[in-house]
Amino acid sequence: MSESQNSRFPFYGPQGRLVLVDSALEAVSRGATTIGIKTPNFAMIASQIKPTHPLMEPSEKIFPIDFHIGATGAGYIGDILQLIDTLRLESQKHRLTYETPIDVDSLAKHLSSFLHNFTSYAVRPQAASMIIVGEDQTGVQLYQVDPSGTFFRGSGFAIGQASDAALEVLTREYNKDMQLDQAIELGRKVIEKALGEKPIVETGIIEPGKAFRKIRTENA
Fold first, then answer.
1. Does 41 reside within a domain?
2. Spatial separation of the C-alpha atoms in residues 49 and 64, rounded to whole Å
3. Which structural domain, as residue segments, surrounds residue 122?
4. Distance between CA atoms of 62 and 152, rounded to whole angstroms?
């Protein structure tokens, strides 16, 4: 096989890991601390808004995808925005084709395939991990999708800077019977403890039968 042909395939390291994906995950680990929480009655996503230049407006971190779905991410903001556009386009195409809202699982799988294609053809992987939250016929849902295209469904996720510390706090204090206001406070607390500072946090919320909405909390 020629060198030009070989360059079309993903580059694996000595331990069988995709080197470019590992680099993308390293970029994600330097992104804003971002979490997702789900209970039987609601789901939410929350992300730190990093300090910016005093004359610049804070960046948006929580994005509505459709009436019933929202998403956030950690990593390079340009890659996050491209993935948000990908999610929105797929959701709109589904509505136009089937005249029904897309279910959350299908949307997560579409994003998984989109990201996997970047590793299949040795294109630079998207340096972003995404958390998707929404409601469909199966109830409220929470998914995480990594740069490799690997996706998970669960009740709690943490990505970005200090994600291991954030996940430790989240795992310890998560309660499936908590109320929405308690979950919002837990999200802020998880990010604060992980970073060791009082951050500005943007939160997105989905409840059964209600539109996805977002709020911003600024700590003194």
1. yes
2. 17
3. 15-217
4. 19
Of 61, 109, 53, nearest to 81 by C-alpha is 61
Query: Residue 204 belongs to a domain with what CATH number?
Result: 3.60.20.10
C-alpha–C-alpha distance, residues 99 and 90, integer Å? 13
Whether residue 56 is contained in a domain is answered as yes
Entry pTM:
0.87
Number of domains, the chain: 1
Please check whether residue 103 lies inside any domain of the structure.
yes
pLDDT at 203 over 70: yes
Higher pLDDT, 179 or 147: 179
In a domain, 101, yes or no: yes
pLDDT tens digits along 32-73: 899 999 999 999 999 988 766 777 777 789 999 999 999 999
Q: What is the largest CA-CA distance in the chain?
A: 61
Beta bridge partners of 133: 70, 142
| pLDDT at position 200 | 87
Cα 85 versus chain centre, distance: 13
Gyration radius from the chain CA atoms: 18
- pLDDT grade, residue 76 (50/70/90)? confident
The pLDDT of residue 7? 46
